[in-house]
Amino acid sequence: MRKYHLTWTEIVNISFIFVFSYISIILLHPTPLAHAKAKKNKSQKIIISRDISKLPANVQHMHARILQVAKSGKLKNMREVLESNEILPVVSFGGATDPLEYWTKISKDGRGYDILAVLVNILQMDFAILNQGTKEEKYVWPYLAEYPIKALNEPQRVDLYRLMPHQDIQVMKKSGDYLYYRLGIGNDGTWHFFVAGD
User: Fold this and answer.
1) pTM (global) more than 0.85
2) For residue 31, what pLDDT band results from cuts at 50, 70 and 90?
3) Taking Cα atoms as reference points, which of 84, 113, 74, 82 lies closest to residue 98?
4) What is the dihedral angle through the alpha carbons of 142, 168, 110, 119, rounded to the nearest 10 degrees?
5) What is the pLDDT of residues 115-148, one digit of tens each?
6) CA-closest candidate to residue 124, choices 50, 178, 185
């Protein structure tokens, strides 16, 4: 059987097609990490709500499942929620591949109680609706994650103090951005991220 050898021109052309196709896929289908790192768009209308009952059924279901496990105090039970998710949610910008292992590692008590407490606190606060009416519509808890820290009004500042101590808030004021934990769920009920940081 005769072997066919590609010329350098053919190799370059094939490589270009592959790279272009890959970039197109990334642009058209943002990854969970892209969702988590997405910067605030000042022109984007942000809607704040506290009415969970008006969310799509799949979003309500995922919200309820995460909250239920968090309130139970049993971090290991979050494994079932994670495995039922369409994708693995981003839990660290450092690329953690096992959320439970990562949460246990960073937990101050070594068992994840403080992480579960954070989940309960933020999931019981108002949420932000982003890109409403589009395919990229998503819901972020707490709503504070979508506001410039220095622009918060008095009731919103009280909400911020419900989440963290004064010294941490002062650090965030200097940066100008919300740097605490935030959780995002897509309009199809997919849990996209639960991260802290910029």
Assistant:
1) no
2) very low
3) 82
4) -10
5) 999 999 999 999 999 999 888 899 999 999 998 8
6) 50
How many other CB atoms sit within 10 Å of the CB of residue 120? Answer: 14
Residue pair 135/117 in contact (Cβ under 8 Å)? The answer is no
Rounded to whole angstroms, the Cα distance separating 142 from 54 reads 17
* Residue 40, number of CB atoms within 10 A of its CB: 13
Asked if 37 and 30 count as a contact pair (C-beta separation under 8 A), the reply is: no
Q: Are 12 and 20 in contact (CB under 8 A)?
A: no
Question: Both tokens of residue 172?
Answer: 């965030």
Cα dihedral 35, 41, 44, 47 sign: positive
**Cα–Cα distance for residue pair 122/143, rounded to 1 Å:** 9
A 10 A CB-CB count for 136 gives: 13
